[in-house]
Design brief:
Elements lengths: L15 H19 L5 H15 L5 E8 L2 E9 L5 E3 L3 H9 L3 E3 L17 E9 L2 E10 L7 H16 L5
Antiparallel strand pairs: 1-2, 1-6, 2-3, 4-5, 5-6
Length: about 170
């Protein structure tokens, strides 16, 4: 599929140039989805659905919300997932603790990895910071080893920024 793909088609991310074009398109689509809607849960749900339906090679895309020093499952697309994750535990917990993107080519080599889905082999987790504080993490899983790279991290960081700016947070 081309980078002109609609919201229900997989994007072509087969080269660095196409990947960058795809993330630019996704960000524009996200801006359209968020236009006129600022509800946190609605926007997180739309974000997860857009990403899951458009980005190839995923088996899970969604949010864990910071609640009382724990990450609690939020809107997502994919199989059932772990409901509560302590900050500092697993890839999502490491992201929440460090406030840094976690790009993990092989989750089985990550110390303390939490296997919510045994089919997941690589993971990308981004912090969602609102006014400098952690509100959530955005978690992406793939059955492919080394599915994610720096271009994916950059593309999703731009989209997370769009989400944060277009959403009212609790």
């Amino acid at each position: 599929m081309s980078t002109d793909a609609g919201p229900n088609e997989l994007l072509d991310m087969s080269s660095p140039e196409l990947k960058q074009q795809s993330y630019a398109l996704l960000d524009r689509q996200l801006q359209s989805l968020l236009a006129g809607e600022r509800d946190c849960i609605a926007n997180l749900a739309q974000f997860s659905a857009l990403v899951f339906q458009a980005v190839p090679g995923l088996n899970w895309a969604g949010f864990y919300l910071l609640r009382d020093a724990r990450l609690v499952l939020g809107p997502f697309q994919g199989k059932v997932a772990c409901v509560r994750i302590p900050v500092g535990r697993g890839v999502c917990g490491a992201c929440a603790e460090s406030l840094e993107v976690q790009l993990v080519p092989d989750v089985h080599a990550f110390p303390g990895h939490i296997a919510c889905d045994s089919a997941s082999n690589s993971e990308l987790v981004l912090p969602v910071l609102v006014d400098g504080r952690l509100a959530a993490v955005f978690d992406l899983d793939s059955p492919q080893l080394a599915r994610f790279d720096e271009l994916d991290a950059q593309g999703f960081q731009a989209m997370v920024s769009t989400l944060v700016a277009g959403t009212d947070w609790p």
